Amino acid sequence: MGAVVALADLLDARTVWRGQPVEAPASPAQPTGHPSLDAALPTGGWPDQALSEILLRADGVGELSLVFPALARLTQAGGRAILIAPPYIPHAPAWARAGIDLKQLQVVQAQSRDALWATEQCLRSAACAAVLCWPNKADDRALRRLQVAAETGQCLGFAFRDAKHARNPSPAALRLQIDARDQIRVLKCRGGLAPPHPIRLAS
What we know:
Blueprint: H1 7-12, E1 29-30, H2 35-40, E2 46-47, E3 51-56, H3 63-76, E4 81-84, H4 92-97, E5 105-108, H5 112-124, E6 130-133, H6 140-153, E7 156-162, E8 174-180, E9 183-189, E10 199-200
Parallel strand pairs: 3-7, 3-8, 4-5, 4-6, 6-7
Antiparallel strand pairs: 1-2, 8-9, 9-10
């Protein structure tokens, strides 16, 4: 049986190469404007140049207030935000009170199939800072196209969908579910593990 040689001796003798750890570059992110949510997400905010999926059990549970801070920051900096086929007419005074520059906000009305096409084109165009959509019928392939389009156009994409889709896989970089007003569950997040407990947003 051969002699036992201590690993430390081999390293000291420089007969074994030892690699050095290299820190992975942090994924760019856009702050959500909600400190507790930013602290819980591995990237520290909305994943940049990516699609984020927001799942909700019913309309009006605070889904827009979740994205308002980011939209306010982007539009005030001159970025364009596009709403593709929103289910309700946006109440302009409420958006303005949230700090969003209405001159940088545009609404595109479209039918279901055309809405997905319009969303993809806007995400891919590199002319938008953020694109919001409400796809009723979007399979994995359609969502993957939106994810790729967001990367190509270096744009923030937000897809608001029914919570029933939570059981289906999704290519979105981030998936959040609104369980109740001001309470968010992270179902999937790029760059790390999803927090095990719901996140309470400050009122």
